[in-house]
Amino acid sequence: MKKVILITGASRGIGAEAALLASRKGYHVCLNYCSNKEAADSVIKTIEDEGGSGIAIQADISKEDEVDLLFSTMDRKFGRLDALVNNAGILESQMELTEMSAARIKKIFETNVFGSFYCTQRAITRMALKHGGTGGSIVNVSSVASRTGSPFEYIDYASSKGAIDTFTIGLSKEIASQGIRVNAVRPGFIYTDIHACGGDADRVDKLRDHIPMKRGGYPEEVAAAILWLLSEEASYVSGSFIEIAGGR
Ligand code: NAD
């Protein structure tokens, strides 16, 4: 039976590349997007043109009721779930902590942390052996910022990714007996539009000298690690992290 994967925030960037690669590896793809239907439909069209199958489902993952709708739509379409990639995330512009508004900090955590919690809760009730599932695999998209802390820049974002790291470690232990593996990737500077959201679209190129390999990474390089962690080749890997950061 063909496996089903749900990838959040997958209309562009790392999520879109993970969706394309997942389809090439034989998954039915449930592609979540927040607002850009056109971009999401275009990823699904590429999947279908290549002979795969997928569905794009709108939901703001920071809102619990929308996450419920996302999962019920997925249930109606595919009736099962084997893999979840908690990819959706936001970054805001560069700023010191004392300048950050409460609204900004709240939004970062609601999207990057709460959204992953909401999706994962619902994924577990579909995958866990004790809930009648057949097991599965979860990959969280963290960041090298969880370890560097991004001081004087994006400390809210870095802290939210630190929470994702702890979530990954704790959850991998909590649900190991349920046939579910939980891992994370920590990308470094990857060429995607997230840096424009952070107010500095050229950030990756500006920081090239701080990267041992002297180049930014590509979404495809992160997608490859995500799909490996999800695969049977990683069957004894859980609670682990892969840095995709050019040696950083
Ligand atoms: P991106 O901005 O292209 O993609 C992020 C996606 O998340 C977008 O499609 C966006 O619409 C979606 N999203 C945001 N809020 C959402 C919400 N509330 N509900 C649903 N979807 C939502 O950037 P990306 O680089 O592809 O980011 C993917 C992940 O990789 C993020 O978690 C990001 O923090 C992480 N990451 C990226 C880098 C990098 O350098 N690009 C580095 C480390 C970690």
Automatic annotation (TrEMBL):
This is SDR family oxidoreductase. The keyword Oxidoreductase applies. It comes from the Bacteria. Belongs to the short-chain dehydrogenases/reductases (SDR) family. PROSITE patterns: ADH_SHORT. It comes from Chryseosolibacter indicus. Pfam families: adh_short_C2. Keywords: Oxidoreductase. SUPFAM superfamilies: NAD(P)-binding Rossmann-fold domains.
